[in-house]
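Entry for adenosine-5'-triphosphate complex. Fields follow.
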Amino acid sequence: IWFDFNLAIQETVQDLQHTTNKHILVMDFRETGKIYADKERIGQVMTNLITNAIKYSPHSNRIIISTQREDNMVTVCVEDFGIGIPEDKKEKVFEQFYRVSGSKQHTFPGLGLGLYISNEIIRREGGKMWVNSTEGKGSVFCFSLPVTNET
Ligand code: ATP
Ligand code: MG
């Protein structure tokens, strides 16, 4: 369906803000317009990225969700200031059942499926997903989707 990208992202962010007292989900949105995609699945991807950002940043409280539009692409990024991902594990996190082995101070529950599923959804919608991260500093997960002209 056609939907306003920012509005859909905002709805998911507001739903998830209700699940945490500790973390503040900051929205930094630029005009995106409408896209044609599976709105529910995009919401599912956002939920996976934001729940990860919350889970893997136990000692910081800010999470920044930003959107932008460039040419015929919309991009959304979820940035946290948490544990980060070691350089050599950055590509592996998108694999099925892959989890970075836990630190000594913390154990984080999970199956290692969220990012695999998210990446598949975005790929099937014709987009792509990537991560920038520094171990011990934080992570930024982004995905882009194409904007096709409304006819
Ligand atoms: P679930 O299936 O419940 O989502 P999960 O969170 O372990 O379990 P993924 O979401 O696929 O699985 O993430 C895979 C791994 O990537 C995680 O186990 C974690 O090691 C790492 N990871 C994902 N997001 C982050 C993040 N924001 N910061 C640091 N590490 C992350
Ligand atoms: Mg996860």
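NOTE: The pocket of adenosine-5'-triphosphate (ligand 1) is lined by residues 48, 52-53, 56, 80, 82-85, 93, 98-100, 110-116, 139 (CB under 6 Å).
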